[in-house]
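Our working data are protein records whose layout never changes between entries. Getting from the letters to the tokens is the skill we practise here. To make this concrete, we reproduce a full record directly below:
***
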Amino acid sequence: MAENKEISKEVQKEILKFQNYQRQLQMVDSQLQRLEIDLAQTDAALMELEKAKGKTFKAIGTILIEEEPKQLKEELNKKREETNNRIKTLKIQADRLQTRLEETQKNLQKDKQ
């Protein structure tokens, strides 16, 4: 009887691990989506900047400040690079979490048998 409770506790721990990995993966996926939207907006801003003639501005809070196109382009390219790096890091993290999730699922299926 004590053995059944021990197995039950092990299974409960695996279930908790599985649920934790699921939550973590959902959070990483959500962050990835936000970053990909941010990257698309940055790319769109860079394309518009290429077309711009005359004065260019950047938004700081609720105000617009005149900025040199070259400076804006440098800032946007830096932001793009940082966002790309963050996306790569999160994709690696998501892959690791997915692997752990699958391993935990296999362990749970073994315990079920």
